[in-house]
# Entry
Amino acid sequence: MAKLQNALAKKIPVWREEIKEINKVHGNLKIDTVTVGQAYGGMRGIKCMVCDTSEVPPDKGLLIRGIPIADLTAKTAEDTFYLLCTGDLPSSADRKALTEELAERAKVPAYVWKILEAMPKDSHPMTMLDTAILAMQRESEFAKAYDKGMAKADYWKPTLEDSLNLMARIPTIAAGIYRMRFKKGPRIAPKKGLTMAENYARMLGIPDKSGEFADCMRLYLVLHSDHEGGNVSAHACHVVGSALSDPYYAVSAGLNGLAGPLHGLANQECLGWIIETTKKFKGVPTDEQLRKYSWDTLNSGKVIPGYGHAVLRITDPRFTAFREFGMKHFPEDPVMCLVDKVFNIVPQVLVEQGKAKDPWPNVDAASGALLYHYGLKEFSYYTVLFSVSRAMGMLSQLIINRAMGTPIERPKSVTTEWMKKTVAAAATQS
Ligand code: CMX
# Structure
């Protein structure tokens, strides 16, 4: 850890000064206003929080520390975590140090496996992952240091310790859950010297002589790592962390949000919809059949999973990266062909319906097809894969928040009575 900790120790005082100065000089500058519609409408689009690890301009898609995600598709998970935390890509020595550091910390406590084994056999894999993370809270270095009494300026140090321990263990736990929950045989232990993606792919036990599945996992971990601060999982993690709950509590909260069908679970739902379609039409449907089936889905009151976004207004560049990977390695795969066909039809249908502000595919529209191709066909596991990656974003945001002394989050809620009086008063004035 020394290298990552040293890099952060150099950057943090500079960042703190910048923020202090912005606040001192411009603290009263208005950067947004809030409408009644936004207050009732999920606070969409209100600029009211800061996240420096990544941003999502609606017309560009994900930028990690200013770098478009399309330019990071050859990187490793370790590179991405280092970049998220420090704002710089690691040197090869930094990367090596981080890989070794994670290997040192990878051992999962035995009690975690006992707890997971005791859970009902039909538990959702996301429930199992969250339970494992919460169970390990007793290991938190942040909680121990806080109990002893620690200066606020040092909060980030044990947060980084907890984050590295979690980062090191989550892939092993996630792979163990896969093998246990879907009866794939004994757990496979992590191996030193491998990257996070290589290890995770190996521990899942998916046959992979060519290393192509490990490469798919590498891409998967990079693409899902972070998506600025306001999405449900990042925000849930942020709110809980802002109470100085340690990273185990905060990440578990974030992942509980990721488990929702309008967020991370959409990848499970999306592939389910695709497979249902191939079953119904006994193969890839014609354009007309697909158009009608899309309308049937909408008319039955359901959303088309994998399409639309709260922020994006373009095809998600993460979808493009997954699609390119699939088209490069297995263009004839029927599921991949259908993903491609859906991409050509569904946006038109959503535009015709005229409800979704963003008719384009998001990351979840293609990711499942890749996993399915390599034989990872248990849909309910897909959000766990998302979690292994998204934990990197949540943890890096927590480290930065503790370093910047971000205060407890506490927006003001109003009642509908207050709203009625306020709109009535506004009406008399106009
Ligand atoms: N299919 C059908 N209807 C959709 C739709 C879709 N894919 N996307 C949006 N709409 C509908 C909304 O349900 C909403 O309808 P009502 O007015 O009847 O409530 C209307 O269009 C306007 O919604 P919006 O402002 O465009 O979208 P929101 O910001 O409210 O919601 C999201 C964004 C992602 C929840 C929504 O697009 C959706 O449900 N998509 C499908 C699920 C999905 O793919 N989620 C994953 C997103 C990425 C992630 O977080 O992992």
Remarks:
- Residues 44, 231, 262-264, 266, 298, 303-310, 355-358, 362, 364 surround carboxymethyldethia coenzyme *A (CB under 6 Å).
- Residues 123 and 181 are 8 Å apart (CA to CA).
- DSSP finds 19 helices and three strands in the chain.
- The longest strand covers residues 54-55.
